[in-house]
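Subject: design request, 225 residues
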């Protein structure tokens, strides 16, 4: 019984974080200069962290080689460390939404679904050592490198960047396509871990639908009108 309680306690942090995320004080405001400064720092941190994750994980995969085995990569300290910090970054990304509230804007359902789902998926994959998480982490860190660079450019009022907005959305969509492939490549996983991968894939399919609808509404329908 004590062992079961101990195992279940590891799921408390993401649960509390999600509750806090959903109950953020939407009317809270700070000065415009403080908001701008924090937004610059926020995006810079995520740019550098995304670059670090992508290059570090790429080096690990190059050094170790690509193997589709149960709990192969998580036995490597460096791999475990990279995934752990990337998992923690999913909590920090909640500030994407908080910054919107501070500018008196409301996030769309896509953003809330994306952030909450990411915390749950990376939490489960890290806690239960699902090796297939390297695919999503590598792709996500690569896309975030460009995405947060775009956000930073917008903050710095680099007007030419508005023309590449649709391509950022395209990148976000494309990173999700390989996720179902992991179900084929990692059939060697334990039954429980394989179910986590199925859950991750269903979450990704939901994202594809939401991003697809966003793309159609903002870049196809509006343009035709």
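Subject: RE: design request

Done. Sequence follows.
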């Amino acid at each position: 019984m004590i062992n079961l309680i101990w195992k279940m306690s590891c799921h408390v942090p993401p649960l509390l974080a999600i509750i806090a995320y959903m109950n953020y004080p939407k009317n809270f405001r700070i000065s415009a200069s403080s908001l701008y400064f924090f937004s610059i720092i926020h995006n810079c941190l995520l740019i550098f962290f995304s670059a670090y994750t992508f290059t570090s994980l790429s080096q690990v995969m190059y050094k170790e080689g690509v193997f589709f085995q149960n709990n192969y990569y998580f036995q490597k300290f460096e791999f475990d460390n990279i995934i752990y910090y990337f998992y923690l970054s999913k909590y920090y990304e909640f500030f994407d939404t908080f910054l919107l509230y501070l500018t008196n804007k409301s996030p769309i359902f896509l953003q809330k679904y994306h952030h909450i789902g990411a915390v749950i998926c990376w939490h489960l994959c890290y806690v239960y050592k699902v090796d297939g998480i390297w695919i999503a982490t590598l792709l996500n860190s690569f896309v975030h490198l460009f995405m947060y660079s775009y956000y930073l450019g917008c903050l710095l009022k680099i007007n030419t960047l508005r023309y590449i907005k649709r391509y950022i959305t395209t990148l976000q969509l494309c990173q999700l396509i390989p996720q179902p492939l992991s179900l084929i490549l990692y059939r060697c996983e334990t039954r429980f871990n394989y179910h986590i991968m199925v859950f991750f894939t269903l979450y990704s399919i939901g994202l594809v639908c939401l991003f697809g609808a966003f793309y159609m509404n903002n870049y196809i329908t509006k343009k035709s009108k």
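The mean pLDDT is 92.
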